[in-house]
């Protein structure tokens, strides 16, 4: 693949140039921003089994991490405070390390079947309060910590992106078998995957067993 090179004369370098490409912001898009969780925002969060949380390191390196659990896994502590439980993962801890360096976070809540999403921005703190963590137990296992977010901005996001992508449409589901397994992709991109199909199949089976054993 030929290397792509940017033409500096065809880039947008300042906000004035950016806004010149678009029309004025809709009034409703400005008015919809709230500083606390309304009853509708709380209802949306209570229905959500999945979110993505965006963080940034002190030197500006960005990261987005998915979080998923049973419906209502995010605790609404009050109308300006949320708590997101941690669950077993790969222990890279990218999100947590970023929060320690820069507590500003952006969260996108999704509900299966809803084309609208909810965006929440705020400041995060890593919390190990046992009483709080116990309320987030699944299968009698409490998380090691929770991300507590002090909400600064809340708003609903329109359905256009989901409708363009047909994300929830059964007619647009893709066949996962058309791409290699997760283990093979990682090995191909790092140390190299084994050529032996039985060995590769065993690795895939081991991953599935690990999912079952360490989900909580």
TrEMBL record:
Residues 38-158 form the Pyridoxamine 5'-phosphate oxidase N-terminal domain. Signal peptide: none annotated. InterPro entries: Pyridox_Oxase_FMN-dep, Pyridox_Oxase_N, Split_barrel_FMN-bd. It comes from the Bacteria. This is Pyridoxamine 5'-phosphate oxidase family protein. It comes from Mesorhizobium denitrificans. The lineage of its organism: Bacteria, Pseudomonadati, Pseudomonadota, Alphaproteobacteria, Hyphomicrobiales.
